[in-house]
Amino acid sequence: MHIAVLAGDGIGQEIMVEALRVLGAMDLPNLCLDHADVGGVAYHKHGHPLPPETLELVQSADAVLFGAVGDPSCDNLERHLRPEQAVLGLRKQMQTFANLRPAKMFPGMEDASGLKPEIARSIDVVIVRELNGDVYFGEKGMRKTADGLREGYDVMSYDESEVRRIAHVAFKTAMGRDKRLCSVDKANVLETSQLWRDVVTELSSEYPEVELSHMYVDNAAMQLVRNPGQFDVVVTGNLFGDILSDQASMCVGSIGLLASASLGDGTKGLYEPIHGSAPDIAGQGIANPSAMILSAAMMLRHSFGMDAEADRIEAAVAAVLAQGVLGHDLGGTASTSEIGDAIVAQLTGG
Ligand code: NAD
Ligand code: IPM
Ligand code: MN
Known about the structure:
This protein has two domains: about 1-95 and about 255-350, Isopropylmalate Dehydrogenase (3-Layer(aba) Sandwich); about 110-250, 3-Layer(aba) Sandwich (Isopropylmalate Dehydrogenase), CATH 3.40.718.10. The protein is about 40% helix and about 20% strand. The chain is built from twelve helices and twelve strands. It has helices at about 10-25, 40-45, 50-60, 85-95, 115-120, 160-175, 190-205, 215-225, 240-250, 290-305, 305-320, 335-350; strands spanning about 1-10, 30-35, 65-70, 100-105, 125-130, 140-145, 150-155, 180-185, 210-215, 235, 260-265, 270. The strands form two sheets. Strands 2-1-3-12-11-4-5-10-8-9 form a ten-stranded mixed beta sheet, sandwiched between helices. Strands 6-7 form a two-stranded antiparallel ribbon. The longest helix has 16 residues, at about 160-175. The two termini are about 25 Å apart. The structure holds nicotinamide-adenine-dinucleotide, 3-isopropylmalic acid and manganese (II) ion. 3-isopropylmalic acid (IPM) binds near residues 87, 88, 274 and 276. 3-isopropylmalic acid binds near residues 84, 87, 88, 274 and 276. It is found in: Cytoplasm. Belongs to the isocitrate and isopropylmalate dehydrogenases family. LeuB type 1 subfamily. It catalyses: (2R,3S)-3-isopropylmalate + NAD(+) = 4-methyl-2-oxopentanoate + CO2 + NADH.
């Protein structure tokens, strides 16, 4: 198990320490960790957010554990040098086109949700976010209009093969769950979305057991807080998935609880919390490491087929939350390392 460890910027460094402690506590055979720089840290050291040494390590590894990138001191750099380009570049290089973002209520945490407890209790959704296309990767630029006004543009597009491969992942994910798939788009306005809807609908005949529905993204945002329990699996494009998953995190209680797996055709994956580098709290030791730890669990499950080990880590995180060991994001006082300590103790019976 050769893992590329890319902690990145801000709280990425702090939460990665705890995820590695948790992996260490699991006594995994053949665990080999190799660290490399990514994001603003890499830009400051090597002049590029995704340096060649980091890419080489990623190419030789079996899986990538990724913390977060983003550094306010880099916000005015040319776009290709900004930290965020590292995560976009990695996702594209690794062809991890399917980003699974599960959002499930942890027992006893209903009061931490932004929703009424009885509504919050019902959330158990996997957002399947397309990760290699959409407006993120279309032609973009700044230009002048005929009137001399500055104009920014970003082209949104999907071709049918891109929609088909993410739809297959979504239907298969639904087959392993409650067999309900909601495809979220903006087909009432966007041609990209009309194609998306057509292709997902065409594919549904290959998955007759899955109940397929379609929803416009504005309604989906509303329904997610009105009645999140109606969703089993949601499949959507890169931009809508980005936004809806942050929203889903607050239905669960905190963005510090949401993990993700970015997968391609093989078993090699990129595992990252859905949150960013949180510059507002970086360096204070108060970030919640749970999303990072749960991302490591997803790595064991999806890249190494270690379901039992992944289950153990997820159960330990849930148990620690149920014990009331809560970080600042959940209204508690536990520090990053105290949360890590509690999860390690839970795993080792200490
Ligand atoms: P963010 O997710 O970093 O933070 C949003 C808010 O949530 C902040 O108040 C932060 O303190 C809080 N938060 C996030 N993670 C937390 C955790 N684990 N524990 C407790 N609180 C947590 O989003 P942002 O502020 O919009 O972006 C900051 C930087 O991160 C930007 O540069 C952005 O581009 C980048 N970013 C990177 C990724 C990534 O690396 N995958 C994801 C999102 C944002
Ligand atoms: C995420 C982030 C990234 C995205 C940014 C940092 C490029 O918001 O992982 O959710 O938009 O995909
Ligand atoms: Mn995001």
